[in-house]
Amino acid sequence: MSKECVPKDLDLDIIVQTIKTALPSEQKIIPLHEPYFGGNEWLYVKECLDTRWVSSVGKYVDLFEEKLAEFTGVKRAVAVVNGTEALHICLKLVGVQPNDEVLIPALTFIATANAVIYCGGVPHFVDSEFSTLGLDADKLRSYLREIVEIRSNECYNKFTNRRIKAVVPMHTFGHPVDLDKLAAVCEEFYLELVEDTAESLGSYYKGRHTGNWGKVSAVSFNGNKVITTGGGGAILTNDSEIAKLAKHITTQAKLPHKWEFRHDMIGYNYRMPNINAALGCAQLEQLPDFLEKKRQLAKRYQRLFSNIKGADFMTEPEFAQSNYWLNAILLAPEYKEKRDELLTLTHEQGILSRPAWDLMYTLPMFTACPKMDCSAAESIAGRLINLPSSVNL
Ligand SMILES: *Cc1c(COP(=O)(O)O)cnc(C)c1O
């Protein structure tokens, strides 16, 4: 066969070269997302050690909650041990009960699905849209019109006869989903909206910070997120009563008293320790600067990839400002078998790129869960690659 008959192939070397051009040349290994400590971290953490206030008491938790609420524009933030537990408690707070179904993206990190399970609920998987990588509100609406029945202002799955209680959109890699559209779907079907804002601290939808749409939402401060507290998370809400309850449930449901230990419900030991909050306070001070640096890196990738055929750089949706937590490229559908080869090539060069998560319903724990057609999520998951995105790049 002559060379001319072979279809023009994707030039992987050019893609690897393009990624390298965007990144600092002196660094041998470039992780996907490293934390950056360039401010008051040492000062605040040392103060915790010096005063011995490292655990469940101390000023930094209150301060962190206050600053976080201020930054995100919510009324109250409640700091907890991690984002997964923030999400778990959010679902409890909106009334997810055992045997309820909760609509979540098939394309998400495992924590979204596990949080549903912790409530005794059943994850019900929803497709994504290409423009945001997150929940497709239009497709969800047509699907729900087919499968649900409203009984006294509650939504029931006609096929499983279970109540569907909530929808959990996730802002994938920091790119906000179309929240207005999704909120309208929730209203039509009597569903609670709970944003998984784990990846979207510093991301705005139509000028307002993500996490402001449903009654509650969950943020993560894991080591690989935009800012970190070591491990940590927060529940965001604009409802003071819910905030009070969130605080109570996450602090063993202990009634305030100088010496008495009295608890009035089943609570959880999910409070964020003071030493983690101290780290968080120092990180929050630098967040605007981090966001600016991440945006610059994203622009660099975007510019370089604009000349590359067969690989598209993922940009923020037109209605949003993304934090560009993790940069991503999508290979053209005809090149999807090249994904693993490209991952191998970049790793050989010390560039620790990564594929998207396996779709949730392909995992053994979730194969029996209900799902809609997820062809877009399947297409995305098969050809997406995350690129190094640390603040210091
Ligand atoms: C990171 C993350 C979480 C939870 O975070 P942890 O703080 O690690 O428990 C939840 N959902 C999504 C989508 C995430 O990326």
The termini sit apart by 45 Å
What is the chain-wise order of helices and strands?
Answer: HHHEHEHEHEEEHEEEEEHHEEEHEHE
What is the mean pLDDT?
96
Helical residue percent?
Answer: 25-40%
Please indicate the percent range of residues in DSSP E strands (runs of 2 or more).
15-25%
Estimated structural class: alpha+beta
Number of strands: 16
| SS field, number of helical segments | 11
**Poorly predicted segments:** 1-7
Shape: globular
List bound small molecules: pyridoxal-5'-phosphate
Rg over C-alpha atoms, rounded to the nearest angstrom:
22 Å
What kind of sheet is the major sheet?
9 strands, mixed
Q: Care to describe what's here?
A:
Strands 1, 2, 3, 4, 5, 6, 7, 10 and 11 form a nine-stranded mixed β-sheet that branches. The chain has eleven helices and 16 strands. The longest helix is centred in the C-terminal third of the chain and has 32 residues, at about 275-305. The termini are far apart. A hairpin with a 2-residue loop joins β8 and β9 (about 210). It has about 400 residues and is of the alpha+beta class. Mean pLDDT is about 95; it is low at about 1-5. The protein has helices spanning about 10-20, 40-50, 60-70, 85-95, 110-120, 135-145, 180-190, 240-250, 275-305, 340-350, 375-385, and strands at about 75-80, 100-105, 120-125, 150, 155, 165, 190-195, 205, 210, 215-220, 235, 310-315, 320, 325-330, 355, 385. Helices cover about 35% and strands about 15% of the residues. The structure holds pyridoxal-5'-phosphate (PLP). Pyridoxal-5'-phosphate binds near residues 111 and 220.
